[in-house]
UniProtKB/TrEMBL annotation:
GO terms for cellular component: fungal-type cell wall. Residues 1-20 form the signal peptide. One of its GO terms (biological process) is cell wall organization. Residues 201-422 form the Cell wall protein YJL171C/Tos1 C-terminal domain. Residues 42-101 form the Cell wall protein YJL171C/Tos1 N-terminal domain. InterPro entries: YJL171C/Tos1_C, YJL171C/Tos1_N. This is glucan endo-1,3-beta-D-glucosidase. Keywords: Cell wall biogenesis/degradation, Glycosidase, Hydrolase, Signal.
Length: 441
């Protein structure tokens, strides 16, 4: 599109006219009621933010949910608040990282202040390498952590994990014994290839997961299995969030590291920060459930590595892998259940990143659901035989959201520079197919 770029911002992008012409010339294909145009390596949503309202849950006692209209506005609203990540198998999640603007390496240097984290944050039916503190005389001196957060460290070459009970005033915790889419996309044929000014700012990594190393920091793995070890189940609201077992097939009594194995057909995992909700700082949450803060900010970057093997299974949600983002208020209240107990239907926000819409399809669509909704008819090739590395960039300065397939050599370092983020967005090489979808047009 047409925005001037300033330091530490990310951009507006476009598609070449060739892609649109190819689709208009008959390349569009209808499969299972969804339209597919061409395979691309990047999709940008422009005019992402809006002014509107949704029904924010104000009471859940006894399952008699109440809500009130909540007004929002902003460049990425309502997705500029806290969001959660969701993954459905068959899928292997190999790496996950969350970055926020800031110059420091440590999370407390770049984590939003408490009043910022308390800002306003679907049922989805279609479905570090950073050292954690230091070891001193048999103790772990932790970074600033919330009580109840999962702490993971390598001690004497072995990975150990425990729940933080240290509130900053007592002795530090003893170290453990180390033993549906539109048929075509409208584009600006005159717009140029995406560009971004590379400023001198940095982005700090606040959360990281590495499946092979069984390393997790700054995040918590959850699923909707309340009543199985943690969380709650009742006949009115069903299952709340729970801690996910390592294989994601059941709930668990405490935080677990997601195992280095494939999520099975239809199995889902929810990824949120390692900061539990307390004293109403996440708004209303499911009574008796597990509730955590989401990833906050109008400017944020996620890096992912995953694949989506073909399973050959058939049936409800079988062989239909997906990766998507929700307003974090949704899983913290009701993701699957009474619609009046969730803000999803009133438009509080969902962004489908890679989603297979019918069993066995090799095409992954992207769609945004909210007061302003839309989905690109171009698609990503499903990563069947090898993993793909993907950047998802929230550009609050230019009201744009980017999904970009990265080169295989892309790394998940402790910090990113503006130049690196610019490179992710620009990917200035011939033959890289891009798509621009204008929301609200």
């Amino acid at each position: 599109m047409r925005h001037a770029i300033t330091t530490s911002t990310v951009i507006a992008a476009t598609i070449s006219s060739a892609v649109a012409q190819a689709c208009a010339a008959g390349a569009a294909k209808e499969i299972g009621g969804n339209w597919y145009c061409d395979a691309v390596k990047a999709i940008t949503y422009s005019d992402f933010g809006s002014t509107g309202s949704y029904n924010k849950i104000t009471n859940m006692d006894g399952g008699n949910c109440q809500s009130e209209s909540f007004d929002y506005s902003g460049a990425l609203a309502p997705m500029d608040g806290e969001v959660s990540w969701h993954f459905r198998g068959p899928l292997n999640l190999k790496q996950f990282a969350f970055y926020a603007p800031g110059s420091g390496l440590s999370k407390q240097d770049i984590q939003p202040e408490s009043h910022e984290r308390r800002q306003h944050g679907h049922a989805h039916f279609h479905k570090r390498n950073k050292e954690v503190g230091s070891i001193q005389e048999g103790y772990i001196t932790e970074e600033k952590r919330e009580v109840g957060a999962l702490v993971i460290a390598t001690i004497d070459g072995k990975v150990a994990s425990w729940i933080n009970q240290y509130d900053g005033e007592a002795q530090p915790t003893p170290a453990p014994d180390s033993s549906a889419a539109q048929p075509a996309t409208e584009v600006d044929a005159k717009a140029a290839t995406p560009t971004m000014n590379a400023g001198d700012g940095q982005w700090g990594r606040q959360a990281y997961y590495n499946a092979e190393q069984q390393m997790a920091d700054g995040l918590t793995f959850l699923n909707n299995m309340g009543g199985q070890g943690s969380g709650i189940f009742d006949e009115v609201l069903g299952m709340s969030l729970s801690y996910a077992a390592a294989d994601a097939k059941s709930g668990a009594a405490s935080p677990q590291i997601l195992a280095n194995q494939m999520l099975g057909d239809g199995d889902e995992i929810v990824v949120m920060t390692d900061t539990p909700c307390k004293d109403g700082d996440c708004g209303v949450t499911r009574p008796g459930g597990v509730a955590y803060h989401g990833f906050n900010g109008a400017k944020k970057v996620f890096l992912l590595e995953f694949d989506m093997p073909i399973s050959g299974a058939t049936g409800w949600n079988k062989d239909m892998p997906a990766a998507w983002i929700l307003n974090a208020q949704i899983p913290n209240t009701v993701q699957y259940g009474k619609p009046e107990c969730s803000c999803w239907e009133s438009g509080c926000g969902e962004w489908d990143i890679f989603e297979v819409l019918d069993s066995g399809n090799n095409r992954c669509k992207s769609t945004i659901h909210g007061n302003i909704s839309g989905g690109d008819s171009n698609y990503f090739d499903r990563p069947v035989d090898s993993t793909v590395k993907v950047a998802v960039i929230f550009d609050g300065d230019n009201s744009a959201g980017h999904i970009v397939i990265l080169p295989d050599e892309a790394s998940f370092d402790q910090t990113l520079t503006d130049a690196q983020v610019a490179e992710y967005v620009n990917q200035d090489s011939s033959g890289v197919a891009r798509s621009l979808f204008r929301l609200g047009s």
